[in-house]
Amino acid sequence: MKRRTYLTTTTATVAGLALAGCMGDEADEEDPADVDGDDEYDEEETEEGTEEETEETEETAGILGTFDDFEDLEPWGAFQDIGSIGADPERSSSGSQCARLEPSEEDGQVRVRRSLDEPIDVRNVAPGLAMTASDRGIVRIQLQDEDGDYVEYSQQVMEDMPLTRKNFGLTRVRGEPDLSEVYVLQIIRWFGDDAEGQLWVDDFHFVPDVDTGKVMLQFHGGYESQYTEAMPILQEYDLPATAFVPTDRLRADVAVQGDRLTYDQVGELASAGWTIGSQSAQGVHLGNASSNELESTVTDPIDWLEEQGYEDGARFFAYPGSEYTEESYELAQENYDLAFAGQAECQGYASNPHLCSVVSDPDPDDVATKLDWTAEHGGITSLAFYALEDERSITAVEEAAARIDELVGEGELEVITPAEMADQYVYEG
Fold first, then answer.
1. Are residues 319 and 260 part of one domain?
2. Residues 275 and 376 in one domain
3. Is a pLDDT exceeding 70 seen at residue 42?
4. pLDDT tens by residue, 180-203
5. Quick one: pLDDT at residue 27?
6. Which intervals carry biased composition (Acidic residues) (predicted)?
7. What is the pTM (predicted TM-score) of this model?
8. SS3 of 247, please?
9. In terms of residue numbers, what domain contains 242?
10. What mean pLDDT do residues 166-177 have?
11. 175 — phi, psi (to 5°)?
12. 349 and 425 Cβ atoms separated by less than 8 Å
């Protein structure tokens, strides 16, 4: 049911799929897909579609890896003169250049597209880009059929970062796209009313998609409430989770004042089946760490985790607040098997295992929708919770656990751990 020739959704479902995350400056950003009716093909979402299941085809397998390296920009152009695209020989992830995208002043966005002479089959793959930008924001990739119906994948881009691959997640479906015959690739970035900024893209690539939806439950920050509130909820449903902890802020015992986990509580979480990973030594945004402290902040937790018997979790890292710098990203690459930061659900295989996507602090009203979306369309969705200090945050965990239990029981969803993701869902092509 999950990888259909036609992917469909209701209008109500699409409306509930606004990207979640902890990036406050994205909250008020207009969705460019809604600003201009999305070119001449814009139609209302439909409610019904075929239940036909598909299997991987030779055509699908043939597009895995780099599809366009932007060495030749002739096939690309700005749609309806919305923004511009040009070559930048000063940057590239491979080859001699990348593409530099800039918004048009009147539209506040850029839309570039490539029309294909022959359609491609994308039923079992997910797209991605290498990208960086002058300021952070959301970048969208649309894959359109000959009628203009499309699937849309999204991911955040951080400013002044290396031009490196990002894992995009499926966040929108418009109409009844025939994914066996996609004719148009489109890249969209909304810059805002000031219409200033640049986006650099390279290495338009495809990775295998994940057929049966996967979900990972994560708890960031090492808060005691994750032990007192979340653990009993997950034990009720026999669900595993991961605690990414700031090792230097853990407490020796309950006599030490503070709101973080004690060493014994961390041990009980591990005994309950939780993975114990790193969220840096202090758990502060890594952009706030001085250069001479950054390496120890990122890497010292590995020694502590291994000494305490959490060797498996020492392979995994979560960037505090999904914030990272070039130096901290490179340290994560060098020292961990997976690292988590992002802003989209339903990612495919990780083409970049050190920027695996997360949905941060999901709202109780949205969490079931995101899980249902994952069950319907496949992919990997990682839900990240923080301090469970109020009814809202606790309810979000309760809603997530209850809905996961239902979907797992129906065979529509599977719960995975970071180890399973690292060992089974990383794409190296």
1. yes
2. yes
3. no
4. 999 999 999 999 887 789 999 999
5. 33
6. 25-59
7. 0.87
8. helix
9. 213-424
10. 97
11. 70, -145
12. yes
